[in-house]
Amino acid sequence: MSWSTTWGNSTLTDANAPGLRPVADVPPALAQYDAFTAALGGRTPAIFLDYDGTLTPIVARPELAVMSEVSRATVDALARKLPVAVVSGRDRPDVQKLVGIDSLIFAGSHGFDIHVPGREVMGSEIIDTYTPVLDRVDARLHEVLDPIKGALVERKKFSIAAHYRLVSDDDYPRFRAALDQVEAEAPELKEKLGKKVFELQPKIDWDKGKCVLHLLQVLGLEGDAYVPMFFGDDVTDEDAFRELQGRGVTVICAEPEADLARKTYATFRVDTVDEVIQLLRRMTP
Questions:
Q1: CATH fold of 125-202, please?
Q2: Numbered ranges of CATH 3.40.50.1000 in the chain
Q3: Taking the chain, what is the end-to-end CA distance rounded to the nearest angstrom?
Q4: How far apart are CA 40 and CA 232, in angstroms?
Q5: Partners of 48 in the beta sheet?
Q6: Residue 189 pairs with which residues in a beta bridge?
Q7: Which end of the chain is more exposed for a tag (fewer CB within 10 A), N or C?
């Protein structure tokens, strides 16, 4: 894989960008299943799945996000019939272990680390360049965030996550100020926003969306016979939703009542992880 070195700032989704609409306005895939299947146009789905918040509910700490046996069996059955990949913000070995299905394609670290069964792991060529800065920033984040109750620093191979789900509202300004201080010391990294987490990644023009397009090419799934599908819940999944506009079908896992202020590029919606699994089961040939 060749990596672009187009530098740029990490920003939130532009609320006025074409294709965005409130989550509440996105049609429900299960209730409007005929419209959902019509969008596939008789093509073979190539399915890309986020992990946290999509195959497992969001939990207080990353290590608690365990995939249910029903979810695992559903994904396994689907993968025996259709191309299936998991594209996660977690480290690839971590999400591979949690999913526990060896036949799947896995992309970890928001697409920086890709493994296709029977092929080499792709992405490792960039880690030598960024390991020193990641090591330095990891140490600094622990220094400034560990004293804040509830703050959690999670070092990954290709990034560092600063979680604030357990940080009190009173302590959040201190958390944000400390994070800003460390980011100012590391211009080589960019910030990506997630659900109650800020992730610092190499400042490379790469994300889940570009990862999906790359995999479609690598796997020979770009033709008219296939329709790419992406299931996700987080802000980082919007990169994939955006890239697949006009060429694929995307599904956001989000409760309209809880996400009234959020806008999305997704074409369909489910409200819970259980509904993700129900939809995948209905899709299994």
A1: Alpha-Beta Plaits (3.30.70)
A2: 28-36+43-124+206-283
A3: 32
A4: 18
A5: 85, 230
A6: 202
A7: C
Tokens linked to 27: 């049609």
What separation in angstroms does the CA of 215 have from each of 155, 211, 233?
Answer: 26, 6, 20
> Mean pLDDT over all residues of the chain?
88
| Rounded Cα gap, residues 225 and 209, in angstroms | 20
Q: Which residues are catalytic?
A: 50
Overall pTM > 0.90: no
How do strand 197-202 and strand 189-194 relate by DSSP bridges? antiparallel
CATH no. for 28-36+43-124+206-283: 3.40.50.1000
| Per-residue DSSP letter, 248 | S
pLDDT in tens, 221-254: 998 999 999 999 998 899 999 999 999 999 999 9
User: In the numeric block, which tokens belong to residue 270?
Assistant: 């489910």
What are 171's two structure tokens? 């302590």
141, 153, 280 from 144: Cα distances, Å: 5, 10, 43
- Give the model's pLDDT for residue 230: 98
Q: Which residue's structure tokens are 């790469």? A: 206
Do the bridges between strand 105-108 and strand 113-115 make them parallel or antiparallel, or are there none, so unpaired? antiparallel
In terms of Cβ atoms closer than 10 Å to its own Cβ (0-12, 13-18, 19+), residue 38 is exposed
pLDDT digits (tens, 9 = 90+) for 125-163: 666 788 899 999 999 999 999 999 999 999 988 889 999
pLDDT at 115 over 80: yes
* Sequence ranges of the chain with CATH classification 3.30.70.1020: 125-202
For residue 194, list its beta bridge partners: 197
Q: Using alpha carbons, select from 274, 106, 134 the residue that is nearest to residue 204.
A: 134
